[in-house]
Amino acid sequence: MLQLLKYTRKDFDDYYSIVADDQVMKYITGNGMSKKQAREKFTSIMQINEEENLLGYFKVIDHNHGLIGDCKLVRYKYDRSMLEIGYLLKYAYWRKGFGTKICKKLLGKSAEIAPKDNIIGVIDPDNVASKRLLEKFGFKSCFIGEENDIPTEKFILCR
């Protein structure tokens, strides 16, 4: 069983254990984050988590394996009327069905919080697994190009 626990300030080491890995970050930033980069990002995560009661960034805990990754359900920064979902898994848990379970949990949570809001997922166009996962849940590609000099594909789930 998976549990999503909102990050708190004491969780930096857990966060860093995920984002420092080059394989995990391949489709996010291209490389694992340095401790300094991770601290900066974690500070922004804490700001979002403290401002938002139900939304935010979460540790993903599997009752058999412990910490396996993290995920987010946040207001989309370019259109606050939409929600954005995303997740990262430690490499050892890739291709084991955890992405599907996380997506299902995030969509369930979004239906409780804002059932009429559209949801966006932003991925690297080369990330075939994430593309298939979003399509499996009914998301449709709505943008392929570059955003902030990063190859980007956006998928939307209209409600």
TrEMBL record:
InterPro entries: Acyl_CoA_acyltransferase, GNAT_dom, N-acetyltransferase. The keyword Plastid does not apply. Residues 2-157 form the N-acetyltransferase domain. It holds the Pfam family Acetyltransf_3. Keywords: Transferase. GO terms for molecular function: acyltransferase activity, transferring groups other than amino-acyl groups. SUPFAM superfamilies: Acyl-CoA N-acyltransferases (Nat) (SSF55729). Signal peptide: none annotated. The keyword Transferase applies. It comes from the Bacteria. This is N-acetyltransferase.
